[in-house]
Amino acid sequence: MQRGRRGSAQVPEGSADLAADHRVTWHSQGGKQLYTGIDLDRPITGSPLNDTDDFQKLGHGATYLDWDLPRVVVTALMAAPREKVLDIGGFDPVFGHVGWGMEDTHLGAALIAAGCFVVPVRQCVGFHLDPPDADAQWQTKLASWPSTLAYYRRLLNAPAPHGRATAFREAAEQLLGDSEVISR
Fold first, then answer.
1. Reported pTM
2. How do 31-32 and 39-40 pair as beta strands?
3. What confidence score (pLDDT) does residue 75 get?
4. Cα separation of 87 and 170, whole Å?
5. What one-character DSSP code corresponds to residue 12?
6. Average pLDDT, the chain
7. Residue 157 pLDDT level (bands cut at 50, 70, 90)
8. Which DSSP letter does residue 41 get?
9. How far apart are CA 135 and CA 130, in angstroms?
10. pLDDT tens digits along 82-111
11. Rounded to an integer, what distance in angstroms lies between the CA atom of residue 39 and that of residue 131?
C-alpha cells in the first residue's frame, strides 16, 4: 500500500486479489464453527462462491460449510433498492449495543425476506484497511460474538421486519441533528 498526502492510506497498486474475499476462498482450522455451530473434523479450504454456483444453491435453509445466504451479504460493498432498505428499517441498531458483527447478516436476511436477491458481481471489488492493532481488535470483537449471534438468531425467529420506513427516517433525522461536522 502506498501512503498519500498527510500519510493517509491510498488504494493499493495493481489488481485486487479476489481470492482474498472470504466468500471466494474460505479457510477454517476445523472444530466448531462460529456461525452455524457445525463441527468440522479437519482444517478445510472452501470456495463458497464457486461451490454454490454464485450462491444459487443457498437459501431456504441450505448451508455450505459455515455459510448460509444471509451470511454472504457483507455491507461494505452492496446495493439494494432504497425503498426495501427503508421498509425493513435499515440496520438494527441493537447490534452495536450487544456486541460486534451480524448487523449486515441480519440486514441481508431482512432484505432476502423482503424479496431481494443476492447476486454477486465478481467485477466489484472493495478494499479493507486493517488498523495497526487489528489482531487485538479481532480478539475484542470475537469475545462478544456469542451474545451477538444469539441476538441474531432471536431476530430470525421473529417476523421479518416490515413497515419501518417512518421510524427509520425519524432515527436518521435524530442522528443527523445530533451530529457535528468536522472539516479540516
1. 0.86
2. antiparallel
3. 86
4. 13
5. P
6. 91
7. very high
8. S
9. 9
10. 999 999 999 999 999 999 999 999 999 999
11. 31
